[in-house]
Amino acid sequence: MEAQKKNCKNCKKDFIIESEDFNFYEKIKVPPPTFCPWCRFIRRMAWRNERSLYKRTCDLCKKNIIAMYPEDVPFPVYCRECWYGDGWDSVTYGRDYDFSKSFFEQLKELFCSVPHIALWQRNSINSDYSNWVAESRNVYLSASVVENSENVFYSKSVDGSKDIIDSYNLKKSEQCYQNVDCEKNYNSQFLYLSRNCIDSYFLIDSANCSNCFMSSNLRNKQYIFRNKQYSREAYLEELEKLNLGSRSSQSGLTTEFDNLKKNAIFRYANNLKCVDSFGNNLFNNKNCQLCFDIYDSENSKYCYRTLEMKDSMDFNFGGWSELIYEYISGMNSSSSVKFSSSCMTDLRDVEYSHSLLSSANIFGCFGMKNKKYFILNKQYSKEDFIVMREKIIKHMDEMPYIDKKGRIYKYGEFFPIELSPHAYNETLAQEFLPITKEEATKFGYDWRDQEEKNLAITLSADKIPDDIKNVDEKILEEVLRCIHESKCEHQCSSQYRITQGELQFYKKHNIPLPDWCPNCRYYERFAQVPKPILYHRKCMCDKENHNHALKCEIEFETPYAPERTEKIFCESCYNKEVY
Q1: What pTM was estimated for this model as a whole?
Q2: Of 267, 282, 312, which residue sits at a domain end?
Q3: Fewer CB under 10 Å: which end of the chain, C or N?
Q4: Helix or strand or coil: residue 451?
């Protein structure tokens, strides 16, 4: 089919469905979407809670646990051991399909009866305070940590890394602090868009560097201090003067770092080794369009934070799979999974399902493990499953679900936001598209007010020792007051504690104790990263030696919004200036 213009049923803005999109929809036998790509993205993100964690009891073994669900949710919540164990069977919640009700009404009823896992974890060890962790160990208050990572604190999107604190989107690195959008760094602090750097501090868009400080756009350098070359001895002398273990000193340096960013040069998008691909933070991809934070993938579109996948669209958080559509959160070794969330591994031909493991031919199910041919958690023969699935799809079109705002959901739409088990402001939707409580009510979404903390503050922000040299293990007994005192827009937790592993890291690397709580630190990092949206802009280069008159006229699609302060160059001008 030829490209068509559609009007989004949610935001009412026009969007284009390209001819190759129609080919994909035909291949996986689904109708074209009625929501635009951005509204589809937010709708999926409203089903992922990473940071709102609660103390409660497991509804099976009754032990105290940490969960992404508070006590007052309508469904049972099991700890990881109970949920994976044999003490319950999802089949007992099975039910017949009722053609007098809409499909999503029945799905919600099933959803509110089947036990949910407290925290999404797969093959993880000693990570009881972290959500969305797979094949990793010793992960604390972090999310989306995978690929055998270890000792990760207060971080997000960390792959194959070890000994990491306060970092975002970091791959194959070790002994790093405050690294954002980085890869293969070692023993480095405050690095941004940098890779293959060692023993360095406060670098922007630098590669293959060692022993460099407060510089930008470096390539293959050593002993660079504030963008000037030094001898080894002179560099170390300058570094010694800074007292990096002092928080007041660090504060001045971070201000200098922010000013450095305003003068640094940024490539229009952080894409490397890609063919016929566009978006941002792409590495080693082929034919991946409007994708963000993905690598080693091909033939995909509208994907975010996916690894080693192909032939997929509208896929967030997962990898190592193919033919995935309208899916979010956790996926491995799977094929043909649509309109689903929070599944584990080894899935085939799954639709409208949640929290599955090693199953195939599943439609509208929750908590299935090692099952085939199930609808609403009830088993059918292969022949009956095929017939019933077709009847249900026809019924979904003839009796669609209509949400609180009148949006119509037929077959081919992802779960409505109002069916999410999480309040809107608990999810990633709030991070990418923040709204007020009043707006949430207007849109028909749930909202949860922040719980009051009941720990007594024993150390206010102004009393936290300035220099890490003056900190001993008594700090582990203190309850610290965040300097923001819940007066910011960061979902400030107002109070926090220092853990043993965290303190050891600070001591080893001469890093002062933070006076912001983990939430405030996270949102400060998140604000540095461009959102997964592309803007049509012109190159900002005005250098006469770059083969253009006065100002470069090359246009491109970039994730850097016009109101941001970065200097954005096209590929040609960037290469002439940096290399």
Answers
A1: 0.97
A2: 267
A3: C
A4: coil
User: Residue 43's closest CA among 558, 443, 533?
Assistant: 443
pLDDT in tens, 374-408: 999 999 999 999 999 999 999 999 999 999 999 99
Confidence of residue 548 (pLDDT cuts 50, 70, 90): confident
DSSP 125-150: BS-TEEEEEES-EEEEEEEEEESS-E
Of 254, 210, 264, nearest in space to 236 by CA: 210
Name residue 37's beta-bridge partners. Answer: none
Contact (CB, 8 A) for 417 and 445: yes
Is residue 414 a part of any domain in this protein?
A: no
Which pLDDT score, from 0 to 100, does residue 382 have?
Answer: 98
With cut-offs at 50, 70 and 90, classify the pLDDT of residue 453.
confident
Q: Which of 267, 295, 312 is the last residue of a domain?
A: 267
Q: Is residue 18 part of a domain?
A: yes
Burial 333-372 (b: 16+ CB within 10 A, else e): ebbbbbbbbbbbbbbbbbbbbbbbbbbbbbbbbbbbbebb
Residue 130's closest CA among 179, 75, 173, 66? Answer: 66
Closest CA to 430 of 416, 415, 444, 447: 447
Residue 494 lies in a domain: no
In a domain, 452, yes or no: no
pLDDT in tens, 417-444: 999 999 999 999 999 999 999 999 999 9
Residue closest to 153 by CA, chosen among 171, 181, 176: 176
Angle between helices 103-111 and 382-398 (to 10 degrees): 120
pLDDT at residue 85 in the model: 96
Q: Kindly report the number of other CB atoms within 10 A of residue 237's CB atom.
A: 12
Q: Minimal CA–CA distance to 37: which of 422, 446, 316, 411?
A: 316
- Domain extent for 15: 1-32
Given pLDDT bands bounded at 50, 70 and 90, which one contains residue 550?
confident
Residues 93, 368: Cα–Cα separation, whole Å: 10
The total number of structural domains in the chain stands at 2
Pick from 525, 507, 527, 508: which is nearest to 516 by CA? 525
Residues 210 and 173: their CA atoms lie apart, in Å, by 14
Going by C-alpha positions, the residue among 394, 393, 344, 333 that lies closest to residue 367 is: 344
